[in-house]
Each structure stands twice: as C-alpha cells, then as structure tokens.
Amino acid sequence: MPHPVYLDYNATAPLRPEAEAAMLEALRQPGNASSVHRYGRRARRVIEEAREAVAALVRARSSEVVFTAGGTEANNMVLAGTDGRRVYISAGEHDSVRHAAPHAAIIPLTSDGLVDTAWLAEALAREEAPALVSVMLANNETGVIQPIAEVAEIARRHAALVHCDAVQAAGKITIDCDALGVDFLSLSAHKLGGPQGVGAVVIRGEAEPAPLLRGGGQERRRRAGTENAAGIAGFGAAAHAALGEPGGCMRQVSGWRDGLEGRVRALAPEAVFLGASAPRLPNTSCIAVAGLAAETQVMALDLAGVAIGAGSACSSGKIEPSHVLQAMGCSPAVAAAAIRVSLGWASGAADVDRFVTAWEVLYKRVAPASAAAE
Ligand code: PLP
Fold first, then answer.
1. Ligand 1 atom at minimum distance from 138 CA
2. What is the pTM of this model?
3. Cα 47 from Cα 251, distance rounded (Å)
C-alpha cells in the first residue's frame, strides 16, 4: 500500500518538527520555572518565550496568556469560573463548553451553521443582569466561522462578557483579539501542530475567572501547578511556525479543499457540503451523501490508507449523531452520512488525489446499494 494519508487535522494535527525540537530541548534540561537558580531561570525563559509566541498568534499581550492542559481546561476555566452570571452558548459549541455550562441558554444556529445574532440580541435585552456569552470562532465539524465581532458588539450593549473558543481557528485564520472584542479566548496546541495536553486561555479584560486548580502561585495565581515546560515550549514553537500561515500556505490548502469538493460533486451530484454557504475555515470539508453511512466511509478509507473523521461526535470511540448538524436542521440521514476531511500544514495536492481516488471506489461500490435500500 502507498504511504498512509492523514486528513484529520481538526482531530489533531501532526507534530511540527519545530515543536518536537523545542520539546526535546526543554525535556533534556532540568529546572522548575519557579526556582531562582540558573536552571529555573532557563525554564522560566522557555515558558515566557512561548507565551510571547502564543500571544502574537492571537495579537494579545503575553501577560494575558494563561497556560492550561488543553482547550478543554481553558473552556472549563471560563465557563465554570465565571459564577453567578446567566450563560449563553451557541448550539454548535464543543462538548467542553456544553458540559461545562449544562444550564446555559442555547443560541440557535441557522441552516448555514451561523449563530442567530438577532435571537441573541433579543434574549440579552430581556436579561436583568449582565450575562456571559460563549461562541466558538470556528466549528470543528463544519469549519463555519462565526461573526464573533458582531456577537461581542451585541454582548457589550448589554454589559455581557464574551468567551470565544478559538481552538479550531488558531493557525488557520488570522485572529486579532482586539478586533474580535472578546474577554476570554481558548486555544489548544495540538490543533496547530503542537503537543496534546497543552492549551491556553487568554484573559483580556478586568473580569477574572476563578482558578480551577488551586495551590501554588504559578501563572499569576490563575492556574496552580508546576508548568509543563516542554509542552509549553512545543506550543510556542508551533504557534510561531503557524503565525504566517493564514495568509500563506492556508490559501493553498483552501484551493485543495475546494478542488476536493469539486471532484466529489462531479462524482456524486447528490453530495452536500455542510456549512459551505457560510464563511469557512480554509482546511475543512464536511461532506454527506444521504444513505452512505459515515462509519462505512471512515473504515473503507482507512483500509485504503486515508484517515478522515466522521462529522458526528466520536470522543469515546462511539459515533453519535452530531449536535452541530442537528442544530443546522440536517435530516438524520444526512447527519449520519457526514464525514469530515481536514487538511493542514503538512498536506499536499497528492493527499487530495488519494482521498478522491479512494472515495470514488467506495462510492461506486456502496452508493448503488444504499440508493436501492432507500
Ligand atoms: N474546542 C474545540 C472547538 C475543539 O475542536 C476541541 C478539540 O477537539 C476542544 C475545544 C478541546 O481541546 P483539547 O483537545 O485541547 O482539550
């Protein structure tokens, strides 16, 4: 079999060589960043350089960046740590937001996958006390980019705080915290070619979420525990490498993604591309052919050496109907058929060719049977 093709960047991106080198270098050195001797000072320097790189990626100040153990912790810190406010989240949020705010009011999505901002404006106008609004910058399943600056503008009119989960957007589109106007922003290293288990929350305004982890005074008392210096070094290196990509290689990635969709459409005119009518990340395609089960496609493509994701949620190995696609009003048949192809920093045109060739074989083998069964 030719070498395997990886097209599941939204699940996790391959580790960049720069991140690997930075991590190995940090792992080889002893030193706790809280120690005052030379080893400690060196670990501190590694962490602070990484903080600068992460801040630069989202045009924030480095003093606003708090390192966490990933995007899930960053989301939990804001959602669980901002007590006493009524919480609004969009219907498309990641489970790490949904489960951290189980009593939140749900902002509906349009069929394009965009948040219904008119609904939000009306709901906030009825609130008696300032709320907290959490809307992701880009969706992990469809890639749909939300109008965060507009959401923040509406929220500001009603003195609400705004949190934005930018885990999927970072490195794929330019992020400017000032332009977005958010109070809190979540990031995760492994979605942009850094290591898993490292992330950050960017805290911009006066409001301080209560720490989730208590103990030492690390991270300006916002997150206790000895810093994961090697992981943070890898995050910083990945953020630095990704800095120019939204205006650079992501344009090429977007062309490959569009080409892929065009070729799938030519093979299967009944295919739908979920979220394609809205602004989207350059790397993501969510494709459904009703009757062609997502699991069948993921497995058949895996056998052909091509790794993709299912559009449905699959955090525990069990594929469940996607709440995102349901919120967009997709029929159960379409939602059950949705696959996600996501490209990234190491992708190439040949990967798209391999996907299309393998998908064509699968489609021609399975589609007549599924059409007959309907
Ligand atoms: N938010 C979004 C939109 C995601 O796609 C993910 C990961 O799938 C997360 C948060 C969680 O990030 P982490 O895997 O670093 O906990």
1. 3
2. 0.96
3. 31
